Input
Amino acid sequence: MLTRPPPALGDALLPVPMYPARARERGFNQAHWLASQLGRRLELPVVSAASTQHLPSQRSLNRRQRMANMVGAFRVSSVLPAHVTIIDDVVTTGATGHALAVAALEAGAERVDIWAAARTPLDKS
Output
């Protein structure tokens, strides 16, 4: 990701949170790991959000179903800086990033960008 960083990284990195039970199943949260590594190398703080719902896998859902599935899925408890960049491993439809961006804006961010390691091809979403 460091070979092609976005032109404006903002004031903090916000990894996509995982519901605690799902994080235990997987063993780690890849978005949090990416944000931690990037934050250290870019000297940017990593802020956090919480996943408020144990949602079913999004793999079999279409775009409309994914957007509906993610409504209210995240909460940010602290006041965020003006510009935050969401960190995710893979963006498919953008539903997760959109839901987290809504929560970030409600927590005081004025601008939210998304930076991901990979993008699912558009014809597959």
Q: What stands out?
A: Helices lie at 20-26, 30-42, 63-70, 95-106. The mean pLDDT is 87. The first helix runs from residue 20 to 26.
